[in-house]
Amino acid sequence: MITKFYRSLTLLLLLSVAVCHAQTVPSPKEHFGFNIGDDYQLANFTQTEAYFKKLAASDRTKLVDIGLTEEGRHQFMLIVSSPENIRNLSRFKEISQKLARAENLTEAQARTLAAEGKAVVWIDGGLHATETVGIHQLIETAWNLVSRQDAETKRLLDKTIVLLTHANPDGQELVSNWYMRARKEKDRSLSNLPRLYQKYVGHDNNRDFFMNNMKESQNISRQLFVEWIPQIMYNHHQRGPAGSVLAGPPYRDPFNYAYDPLLVTSIDAVGAAMNNRLNAEDKPGYTQRAGSQFSTWWNGGLRTTPYFHNMVGLLTEIIGHPTPEEIPLVPQRLLPNGATPNPVTPQKWHFKQSIDYSVSLNYAVLDYAARHRDELLYNIYRMGKNSMERGSKDYWALSPKHVEAITAAHAKEQKSTEGDNSTSEAASGGGGNVPVKHFETVFKDPALRDPRGYIISAAQPDFPTAVTFVNALIKSGILVHKATEEFKVAGKSYPAGSYVVKTDQAFRPHVLDMFEPQEHPNDFQYPGGPPIRPYDAAGWTLAFQMGVQFDRVLDSFKGPFQPIPYGELQVPKGNLQASATDAGYVLDARANHSFIAVNDLLQAGAEVYRMPASGADQGNFFVPATDKSRALVQKAAADYGLTIKGVGQRPAGATSKVSPLRIALWDTYGGSMPSGWTRWIMEQYHFPSQLVYAKDIDAGDLNKKYDVILFVTRAIPPVSAQGNNERGGDGRGPKPEDIPAEYRSQLGSITADKSIPALRKFMEAGGTVVTIGTSTNLAYHLKLPVSNALVEMNASGQARPLASTKYYIPGSILRVKYATSQPATWGMPTEGDVYFDNSPVFKLAPDAVANGVIKPLAWFSTDKPLRSGWAWGQAYLKDGVAAFSAPVGAGTFYAFGPEITFRGQAHGTFKLLFNQLYSTGTGAAQSMR
Q: For the chain, what is the mean pLDDT?
């Protein structure tokens, strides 16, 4: 009787707990007023934030504020697991960190930790805010994991720790409010969003994860690469290829050669689990590998940067929209094949279906993680340990250049011994007759070894930018050392404060990727056919883009090196080398941060001069000594890490007074990402500017408001075959009556009949126009004596652009020479790296150069300018001009073909913009020319 009573009491208590749990955590319907996935319904961030805070009442959760967004909202990560795991999160985080970094762990210790730990799985949503499935599946998944009482959910929570992370709060607020603004459901639309859904960079927020410029990227990267280091991360996106429901792992070739092979096969395994679950639930339409464009080559995305940290990165691109849509008929996708084993048929598609698919995919990933928990934990250790071992010995990476060296050596030998049928070599590979000795020649060549480490000297002229590069590594979880005193390696001396990055660390693939060239393979649809466009960039080596000076060290080395704690950002130490009797101070134009200091000085009313004389001081800034300037210069040295030198007397050439200019930056309705990046850069370097739109330009009288107008890529339309319209827009936009009145002034596009004459008049009256990328098309509208260097003559004798089968250079890094005597290039080296994305290249009329009508600023001096990436037909670039200036009346036109502000990464070319943003004469609008 007593036993029966206690059983009844226990049952009553359990029911009470369940009832309390249900009362504490409302369903989405109870909170939002609709079910997640209902047609025509979207939740904004304000509502979502409130809901996540309600979910945080569950003992299965912990809500973590990971930082503020660019617009000042709180960015949240909801950790979900079993109540017991939640109570022990610090221990499981410690295990995840230890295994990922693989430091000071034996095999047995790693096995023990893997047995104890829980698989950590990251699932995010909302990064690209118009891809509305992403954040809504995150809400629905959170509700399922917190509320469901089934055996599977409990098992998953017991074996895993789930990091549900909101990737873009600002974007969700903007996009959802825009969609829901129409009262009638069928009038709701995501079209014609008035601005970018991330304050500065919009869609490019998924291109920022090795640079970490944006606050949201920094918040996310700290959790991924410093704090939790999950074994699996899942990045939700849209849209699936036409005729499918979604694209997912595994992905098409090429994958990056820096990866551990265990990573590649792990992606395959998890992808199979995802596909299997959908098939088991009768959810067709999953495509993989060649079924979509997505590859694993590129670094920089939320899904791809984790690959270089040994994490299983997952991306799905699914269809779905709050407004019902149709799956179109694509006949070639109807037959089952290896890419799409279970095709979907044409049908009407509802938002809820995409949400259900996404929750199933999340459960598939969590089920794999739960079933393979100890394996995933051990494997991330194993991959890290493999990296450490490769970085601590002589190691030769497999790469296209090494394969080509073997092939070339064999071809040379065959040519020299033609007719000799002797086959004395014992072995060959690949079904051919290439002797193994050629492999050994390459893979025992000491000069071709991977580096043991890199040294970034504190003695370089732009050390603050080098520190910015170091901080990008640190934000990505890389172990960096700092020299505590002067040291010498391989006969070269380095000062205290220099940084050392060794390759015997777990995230070695990321280290190599930031310092070494990428070697993208020649990737064509078929032999002799057109190229297959990379998913994003082909080459991006960050040290090259930033102009960082470093030394590759091929042998083991030691020194007075202090490890920097993971995640601890560095601040460059400034130095004012001056006395009270000095006549003034000199700021080095080679240092980007000097421009911040100059802008601060100008805004404070201090006098600044430019030093145009030839020699070491060319282009440097001189600040006459006053009580005010002395304090400002001292502060600038401390704040920006600058070495500023005092001089006993005013330099003879320091007569060109620097004045700030009224700067306009082109933008367009809906927002331009290149413009947003440039706006962000100008803010960081303290250049005041204002946005200008096509209607403002068409209105004329530009000289009354502006001194300089800056056009980033895709602003100026092409002129027939001469122009470059790579990724260019078509100028279409919404009707004025379809958008709120406050945005109507931003409508329109640059046109040849209205805008170009206004710009010509602006320059003729003394204004400066700076163009970047395809906006250099303006040179052709102005009928300057330049032409497209990348053309060939057809049978009719007409010039046409080179075919992609002959010439194709997707996003890559190339080498150019600079005319460093020109004010436009002051502070630049004689040779430097530029980011090039099928960018414009010019041929200048010889008499125009001789007469001074055109001044070349940068050009390709060799037939092999490729530094990193893929450059098919690069020989066509030789002697082509990458940048030039030209007078237009009393004003100046600047054309920079390469992307000199690319994604806030190309610090090495920022000065090509900054130099054009000052006047150095007596007139307020007199620019340097």
A: 94
